[in-house]
Amino acid sequence: MTRRVHEVMTENPVTVDKLTSLAEAARVMRDADIGDVLVVDEGRLRGILTDRDLVVRAMAENRDPAETTVQAVCSSEPVTVRPSDDVIHAVTLMRRNALRRLPVETEDGELVGVVTLGDLAVEQDPGSALAAIAAAEPGT
């Protein structure tokens, strides 16, 4: 039987408002021990900010992290999946779009989770090196 996204996703994704400073977003990522935050505006998904965005689109461009908002450097118009989509669909989207994470939204746009490359590695090949890394406790 085909597994569904809601069975492998991480629930309660970490979000920041689009007007959050890059410095604050970086602290949120550090404190949650994650490499991305979902960017929202009035509860609706507007983008994804990754640790790579912070380096390539902000630091490398000499942007002031205390003054620059996440909306200025985040990836906008994110590709999303629904909780009821099958996992193969999520894998296909990630491959096609060279993505490491997909926000999960309901039909009415409610943000309910995120499915990551690590989540899928654990699901598809639990014995793989990537699955082992994804399943490891932070800091180990």
TrEMBL record:
Q: Pfam family of this protein, just one?
A: CBS
Q: Which InterPro entries match?
A: CBS_dom, CBS_dom_sf, CBS_domain-containing
Q: What is the lineage of its organism?
A: Bacteria, Bacillati, Actinomycetota, Actinomycetes, Kitasatosporales
What residue stretches are annotated with the CBS domain? 9-65, 74-130
Sorted UniProt keywords: CBS domain, Repeat
**Which protein is depicted?**
CBS domain-containing protein
Determine the domain of life of the protein's source. Answer: Bacteria
